[in-house]
Amino acid sequence: MNHDLELLHPYPFEKLAQLKAGATPPENLAHIALSIGEPKHEPPAFVLRTLSENLNRLANYPATKGLPELRETIANWAGRRFKLCRALDAQTQVLPVNGTREALFAFAQAVVDRSKSNPLVVSPNPFYQIYEGAALLAGAKPHFLNCTAENNFIPDFNAVDEQVWRDCQLLYICTPGNPTGAVMSTEQFQTLIRLADQYDFVIASDECYSELYRDEQNPPPGLLQAASDMGRTDYARCVVFHSLSKRSNLPGLRSGFVAGDAHILQKFLSYRTYHGCAMPVPSQIASMSAWADEDHVLANRDAYRAKFDAVLDALDGCLDVTMPEAGFYLWPKLPISGEEFARRLFTEQNITVLPGAYLSRQCDGVNPGEHYVRMALVATEAECVEAAHRIRRFVTEL
After folding, report:
1. N or C terminus: fewer CB in 10 A for the chain?
2. Residue spans per domain, the chain
């Protein structure tokens, strides 16, 4: 067996199940799950209809590279959304994938050169657990950059030790951030692009929450947009990851894309051809209809805004928590540890939240998630508001 498998940490939800083991919540309170970031809004009916109308295409083997029409649709969407000065080349700069989770993991396996001394994969802390697992199984060492309230939950990349950049082969970033909702600026992206030029590493920008933002006049910028603003349409060392899971409430479709540096994507395509991960043709056709429509995405943002407004109104004054710039998570700072808060909240109010420490690692003497929990506002508005009122009662009794 691959000995690197022994390096993997238990997944956060395994730890959460262990934390809740033996706890008995009140029978008179219905359970409300705020722990898993699985969208619960209705998926677009026209996408489901398109999917069902094309099920006969299951008779065809799908190509790893995806349908040309899907790549064109994605290139057009990205060009409009991120105001790219030149359209992406759908033939060489776009690759459909089975959701960003699969692609983010596989990407490290293709990018990391384990023959080099001390290969590092750098990522934010807290982080999406896939970044760490991808690094370990690619033969690299994870290196974490703490995201705290003091740095507005975005690392100061200029303060990173030069040796870290010298050893870095792959940098994962997540913007809007999971779990904080923090959004990187164009200037911060461009700082990273210049660092990647100087030290020759690849930037993997996980932007799966990019379409869940508060201000319609100020959508979050993206890595390719920042590169385009610099006049760089080859997107050298830059690759972005996008998904329909959050944008279109289609987590089960397992549909997303990667885009950017054509040379890197050519190598990644070669890896994926052997990996055996082509998206089924009906899913590709349904995906085209989703990427081509913005009305359902606007409605989705409106629904999340309404939930955030109602929940934050109910929590006002009882927790140190603010409206995130984007995403669907709250990241409240707590008067006790996240683990104690989560277990007691489940035991007393039958609400499940995820301790922040399960999303982060000890780094520079601190675990930046220790006194936080992640609350995913994915349930119905009524359930989220009911949860907020119960949390208020719970906090008042602490």
Report:
1. N
2. 3-42+296-397, 59-293
Alpha-carbon gap, residue 133 to 69, rounded angstroms: 33
Name the H helices within the chain.
12-20, 45-53, 68-81, 99-111, 129-137, 162-167, 186-199, 223-229, 244-247, 262-275, 281-291, 295-315, 338-349, 381-397
Cα(193)–Cα(177) distance, integer angstroms = 19
Token representation of residue 62: 């799908």
pTM here is 0.97
Task: Report yes or no: 122 and 170 within 8 Å, Cβ to Cβ.
Answer: yes
**Region 133-158 average pLDDT:** 96
Contacts of 56 (CB under 8 A, 6+ apart): none
Residue 195, classed as helix, strand or coil, is: helix
Give per-residue pLDDT as tens, 64-79: 999 999 999 999 999 9
Q: What is the sign of the dihedral through the CA atoms of 6, 7, 12 and 16?
A: positive
116-141 confidence digits (pLDDT tens): 999 999 999 999 999 999 999 999 99
Token representation of residue 248: 């279109």
Residue pair 354/33 in contact (Cβ under 8 Å)? The answer is: no
CATH fold for the domain made of 59-293: Aspartate Aminotransferase; domain 2 (3.40.640)
What is the percent of the chain where pLDDT is above 90?
98
Nearest partner of 245 among 257, 237, 253, judged by Cα: 253
**SS3 label, residue 323:** coil
CA distance 368 to 375: 16
- Is the pLDDT at 398 greater than 90, yes or no? no
The helix/strand/coil state of 366 is strand
What is 3-42+296-397's CATH number, 3.40.50.10740, 3.40.190.10, 2.40.50.140, 3.90.1150.10? 3.90.1150.10
- Give the per-residue pLDDT at 330: 98
Using CB atoms within 10 Å of the CB of residue 203, give its burial: 0 to 12 exposed, 13 to 18 middle, 19+ buried.
buried
Mean pLDDT across the chain, nearest whole number? 97
